[in-house]
Amino acid sequence: MQLQSSVCIVGNGAIGKTAALAFAQAGLNVTLLCAAPDNVNRVDPATWDVRVYALNRVARELLSSIKVWGAMEASRIAPVDAMSVFGDDKGQSGGLSFDAYGARVEALAWIVEDRNLNTALDTALKFTPNIRIVNGRATALAVAGDKAQLSLNTGEVLDASLIIGADGGQSWVRGQCDIGIDYRSYHHRALVANFECEQPHHGVAHQWFTSTDGIIALLPLPGQRVSLVWSAPEPLADTLMQESQAQIAQRLSALPGHRLGQLHPLQPEVLKAFPLSLIRPHAIVVPRVALIGDAAHVVHPLAGQGMNLGFADVAVLRDIVAGRESSRDCGDERVLSRYARARKEDILLMQIATDGLERLFGTNFEPVRIVRNLGLNLVNKLPVLKRTLISQALGKTY
């Protein structure tokens, strides 16, 4: 069977689903190719998902525009009203703080569970016309003239003017297009878990940069709950995975500036780990193909900006395709080159910032340790520089 559409999206993660909705609501016929039926667990009122995202203004506006933000369980979304960053100075002199009031915004970010987001996306997909969901695995990608073609293991063939690779850091689409990558393993794993805290967090996200234990973040969840994201060196990650969450809570309580009181693991106790790396593809477009999300860039999660970069990809690509000249189809070379140019600076700045910070705080060399903690203080005392950093994180220029 041969199926035709204007856009074919490969990948059924949150970024791929969002792209399908965005392009369909822009009036294009969309095929969403899923490697397997979606098995995302639905929101469970009795538990909290350990995988969460700190979504910025750009992500929220995109999800609102496709009627998904308002469909999520609002009671399970926590705004980040402020952020406190700590260095590894034993005297606690290295620090940096941001707040929504100073940035003149409603919130710095919103903490959203993966399940909450995907449940709303799946519901929207069911009721959006112009979207065909196909289950199968692509086995070949070919481009000829004004169309691209995907062959599936089911025997089906998908024709489209534009193929969008939204299939993650190990992107099959990217590999089929012979797009080279620069790869660097951080030799860290991100450990995630949820805790109840004795003292209220007041909507403050806390982050600690340490030279020996990695980067630790406690993100606010609704109520007196926090989500832990600990980027730990692999030997420490192995140790932490063998410890109880009560033992991990004791480690966290010893962090300088910790003001949340005693932490208690949420029941049931869940601790997951994800390997961390930097992936820079040499291109994000080739004829008839565009990459978005982790297929286009993988960055360190220390700034919580990986998903936000992906949502920005979707918003920019949708707007460029929707605003193209009537004489050009959505996979036209000039249209895709506009997307590549529009995303180049944003992606590069985030890659440089996250990789640079990881390198800076990954050394225990004493002169470097002193300078970086002094640097945190200096940034904290320079309002213009702080506003620039906030602007980049929010996806907004002041």
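Next protein, fold it too.
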Amino acid sequence: MESPSELGEFLKSRRAALRPEDVGISPHPTRRRVTGLRREELATLAGVSITHYTRLEQGRALSASDAVLDAIARTLRLTDDEAAHLKDLARPAAASRPASPRVEHASTSARQLLAAMSEVPALVLDRRNDVLAWNRLGHALLASHLPATGPDAQGARPNVTRMLFLDEDYRELYTNWNEEAQLSVASLRLVAGRHPDDRRLAELVGQLTVQCDEFASRWARHPVRTCTSGVRQLRHPLVGTMDLSFENLVIPGSSGQRLIAYTAEPGSPSEAALRLLGSITAPEAQDAAATA
């Protein structure tokens, strides 16, 4: 999925985003034929030979030093996430025979932790954003329209990125959907750069690109950003609007799994709504409703 063309497209997108006057180049009186900086302008500003930079952008450079990549990143005014992504694309891990996609599982201890978090909505995701497990409140908050056993259905697990773009019920949860969609694509780009041989990740991107024009247009702009915490405003069909803080907690190991937990400010209306959601979706409440 992340081929030499990915590196070239990423660099071109960032060159196009910079105007010559942004970097101290006086506009030429004649009309420019390119948007943003030319290759030779970028190379000059970064102190890199135009030949070396061109080979890098075309994916023909066998290696690039930290000094060269850092100079290019500074000239393009890349963020820390974007600079890391540039290095991932420019120096991918040594190619090896692709392994058959391995089915991910949440560990027993991770499931026990989820169960113990009875008043905190939480779920475990893999690096592709497949849901490996969720606790009762996590399911009630984010995907009550789906079976609670969904994460155990191999080959048909919920995927929060796919749901965000293709599942209308899940999409409606987010009052700031555009912001959430942009962050979702940007974080997926970062993961894709780190794992260029991940077949299942490539299949996910391919599916979303074909089935959703909104995803395809965002993906084509090469956004890159990581997200470890923040606040999401959710519009839940049972309890209304809630402002919930979330934290991504990385599970030790090489799998890239993480636990996401949601909390509300103590004493806030959001906390009251979350408690209400917990009470009306509790097994005893559902049993009482079924027998009423």
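About the second fold: Residues 177-194 form the longest helix (18 residues).
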